[in-house]
Fold this protein.
Amino acid sequence: PGMSGGGAVMDHTVHVVDTLRFVLGVEVGSVYAEVGAFFGTENVDDAGILTLELEGGVADGAFATVDPSWSRGPGYPTWGDFTLRITGTSGVLDVDAFSRSITTFDHGSGGTSWTHAVADPNALMLDDFLTGGGRIGADGEDGLRALEVVLAAYRSGESHAPVAVARS
């Protein structure tokens, strides 16, 4: 826990919550989570599955599922991944952040498009942080909202029941 600031739920969920809030303009109303240690860590969660109920924005009333697990064993080609799929009434958006690729599918036209980002998003984020540039990264309020979701997820993991996200 000291190295990661928590377990896998703490480590990965914050990034997904930031992304959902930024892309969809939503807040998380409640969380149902199953959390455990299945991949060999001791005294910390290394696996979980979360269902988030979304409020506001374009996805009001929708839900998201998050797998924050540390499930990549030694020898796997990358240390982790960050993939995101948003499925809506108009189409599907697939993002693979590590490969910097975005795939979109339009239900109406049946067309698919692919985009590849040239710039390294980690380098852009670090440069923004170090230079005090524009708003690429999350701010303090974003961090608080993400932490509130993580804490609700841990409470849900203990109770095995949905937990409302308490906002400060």
Q: What stands out?
A: The first strand starts at residue 27 and ends at 36. Helices lie at 8-24, 121-131, 140-159. The longest helix spans residues 140-159.
